[in-house]
């Protein structure tokens, strides 16, 4: 039987927002890929390693880790069925045989004890209602001395490119969408370090890393994708068409100068958090 403690998140990610993410997996991977190399390098994955990816979504990081652990294996866990389904399909399409997926709540899932050499996550560890319990549970799956590496969003900087470009919509954003709740829960590195220490990890460090954030291959794709995001749709719903259209026009004009050969690209920063399991 599947154990679920984070029922609000399970509902949200199994609902419209999770389905939208799974249906647009390539666009979300394009958006978040700029931090992949730093994350995987921090996890120092060896060819024989067993790797666990928390909140794996549609599994891009699980698959990239599997390509590093050629004689090992990777497991992705996610609370959302549409994500796991898409992850399995993409993995089969790519012919990867050492990456596997499970649907479950990482806070309470029964992981094999002391089994994994490394745990990674690209933005999948911020949503726990009880983060100390969640990271203790995740830590119990790591072998003694096993490595934890994850990335989480930073609080938006007032002069950051995204803050400037999306300002016309930010002023209309009143509350987080259901899937967005908790998104910033680890954005304070001191809090992340306190949680990890309480959960039995040592040597917790947070490093700011910058990377490209590609919103679309061209301006139309970028604007459509931005306005399709769960948090944006949630907050714009019910507003007069003229207000939404004006915001669209403004965002489009602000994004245009960020046109590069690979598409519409802004720069962004995330926290890369690393720690070591002290379990014996
Ligand atoms: C922001 S998305 C990131 C997905 C993926 N890591 C990526 O980079 O594309 C967050 C993911 O965490 C998952 N998630 C949220 N709470 C979770 C929990 N308690 N246990 C497992 N997965 C969870 C969501 O279903 C979602 O797929």
TrEMBL record:
Q: Which organism is it from?
A: Streptomyces finlayi
Give the protein name, as stated in the record: Methyltransferase
Q: Name one GO molecular function term.
A: methyltransferase activity
| Cited InterPro entries | Methyltransf_25, SAM-dependent_MTases_sf
Which keywords does this Swiss-Prot/TrEMBL entry list? Answer: Methyltransferase, Transferase
* Leader peptide range in chain numbering: none
Which Pfam families does this UniProt record tie to the protein?
Methyltransf_25
Give residue ranges for domain Methyltransferase: 51-146
Asked whether the UniProt record includes Transferase among its keywords, one would answer yes
What is a biological process (GO) this protein takes part in? methylation
